[in-house]
Every structure is written in structure tokens, then in C-alpha cells.
Design goal:
By secondary structure, this protein is an alpha+beta fold. Strands 3, 5, 6, 8, 13, 14, 15 and 17 form an eight-stranded antiparallel sheet that branches. Strands 10-9-16 form a three-stranded antiparallel sheet, with no helix packed on it. The protein is globular and about 50 Å long.
């Protein structure tokens, strides 16, 4: 359930903001001089926060981080980089990654997003209980695997990489080992990868569930980056478009599909096509 609410008036109608959405997002924007979206958009974002709480626990308790990028106004990009979980944390955009109505679009050259986060087991993301999800609004238009990278780790082009591709090289807490068979994450929409045990990995592409096996090896002690793996050069940079991104403990199918439904609702409420 959502926390204490702060009342606001919109067009004469009394509504409320979740207190943690206020603290983690709105207050951080104000403190840092970041322009807020218009009130109708904030109301839609607030409802998404409440939906996330219902799916992942009070205060997004099973997540380690979450961000929403798609505000239907590219000029609001600083607001889109505020963490919804880590109070006071603001992501950074590097290189030529570009803000769009639907989120951030990478350039296959030097762009990426930096959460300033190292998933090393100190949070909800554990060796054998870990999950990531993202909504991809636009593909890269390239058949090269790295151009379809969702996220990766600094210093490695193999660890924890997963791609908007059909292959067995989707990895979560695997140094280099592959899935027992290919998993198809092609196309736009909601994607999720969850390590449920030392052997079981569940992937989701929109509402399609793929159960696979791959043995976990270790937690890689390196920062995670969105749209980049290893070093900054064109052989390690994605060309995808990202609407949101989250990380934490493994989520079950009921949780991921609840998030997906909320993503589509939010996109519609801010005037964008629901593509999750």
C-alpha cells in the first residue's frame, strides 16, 4: 500500500502524491533546480509509483533502482534521470545518447546512461536472486549484437549482458556461460531477465515467458551501465531506445506483468502509444 499522501489541487479536483514519490523524485527535482513535468504528467507518474509499490513492495522494497524516461517532452530530460529508489541520486547521460519523447535513444557510437550503481550483493540484487527489466521503445536497426545491448558492466564485454536478440547469450550473474537454449527478446516492448536460483533463469518478452537454465558464477564487482559494456568505443555501444529501467531481486511473472500493465497505462496517460 502507498504511504501518507500529500494533497494537491488540479482543475479543482483534490488528488494526492505518494509521500515517497514526493521525497525521492519531486523534492529532489526542486532541490537541484530541475524543471518538473506538468501536473497531469506528475499525477500519471505518481500512479505508476503506487503501481510499482503494489508490485514490488512498500517503497519499492525489492528493487535497488528504478527510473522512468518517457515524459513526452525531450526538454524534461534532467527530470527523467532522477532515481525513484535511491533518494538524491541523479543518473548521468554520456556521449551522444539523445533524449526523446519516449525516453533515451542511443547512437551506436559513444552514448550510454550511468546509474552510479554496482550490483555486488549489498542490496536486493543477489547472486542467485536477481532481476532486471526495461521497456524498449525503438530498436537499433542493426543486426550486430552489441547494437542491441540493454545493459552491461564496465570492464567486460561478456558479464551480465543481455540483448534485444534471439540467442542463448543472455546473461545474469554469469561470467561467460550461456543459456541452455536461445531466448527471443527481439522487438520493442517490455523485457525482463530474472535469476531465480543457481541454475534457473526466467526471461520475458512482453507477455511471453521463457524458462531457461544457466549456472551462476559470481557477482561482478563493476559498475552497471545502460547501453554500454566494457569500454567506450563503437564496438561496445548500443543503439536502442529506452523508456524505463529497473533492477533488484528476481520478480515473478505476476509482478513483471503488473509492472508491464502499469507502463502501458502511464505511456497512454502522458500521450504516448502503449508499446510495453
Amino acid at each position: 500500500m502507498s504511504r501518507a499522501l500529500k494533497n494537491i489541487a488540479v482543475f479543482g479536483i483534490i488528488t494526492s502524491y505518494n509521500s515517497l514519490f514526493q521525497e525521492r523524485v519531486l523534492d529532489v527535482a526542486s532541490t537541484n533546480g530541475i524543471t518538473r513535468p506538468p501536473t497531469p504528467t506528475l499525477i500519471a507518474l505518481n500512479q505508476h509509483f503506487v503501481d510499482l509499490e503494489n508490485a514490488t513492495g512498500a517503497g519499492l522494497s525489492t528493487l535497488d533502482d528504478y527510473v522512468w524516461f518517457g515524459l513526452n517532452n525531450s526538454a524534461l530530460w534532467p527530470f527523467s534521470l532522477i532515481s525513484w529508489k535511491r533518494t538524491g541520486v541523479i543518473w548521468t547521460a554520456q556521449g551522444g545518447i539523445a533524449s526523446t519523447a519516449y525516453g533515451w535513444k542511443n547512437n551506436m557510437l559513444n552514448g550510454y546512461l550511468v546509474p552510479n550503481l554496482t550490483p555486488n550483493g549489498s542490496g536486493n540484487y543477489k547472486l542467485n536472486n536477481a532481476g532486471k527489466f526495461s521497456t524498449i521503445y525503438e530498436g537499433s536497426g542493426s543486426a550486430v549484437a552489441v547494437h542491441n545491448l540493454i545493459d552491461g558492466r564496465l570492464g567486460s564485454d561478456t558479464v551480465d549482458v543481455w540483448y534485444v536478440m534471439n540467442g542463448n547469450y543472455q546473461r545474469i550473474n554469469q561470467t561467460s556461460g550461456n543459456l541452455n537454449s536461445a531466448a527471443d527478446l527481439t522487438g520493442t516492448g517490455f523485457k525482463s531477465i530474472n535469476r531465480e536460483s543457481s541454475t534457473n533463469v526466467r526471461l520475458e518478452n512482453k507477455d511471453v515467458v521463457m524458462n531457461r537454465t544457466a549456472t551462476s558464477t559470481s557477482l561482478f564487482a563493476s559498475e552497471i551501465t545502460i547501453g554500454r559494456r566494457s569500454t567506450v568505443d563503437s564496438s561496445n555501444i548500443s543503439g536502442l531506445g529506452y523508456t524505463n529501467w529497473g533492477i533488484g531481486a528476481a520478480l515473478n511473472n505476476t509482478q513483471t506483468q503488473a509492472i508491464r500493465t502499469s507502463v502501458n497505462t502511464l505511456l497512454s496517460n502522458v500521450g504516448l502509444t502503449p508499446i510495453a
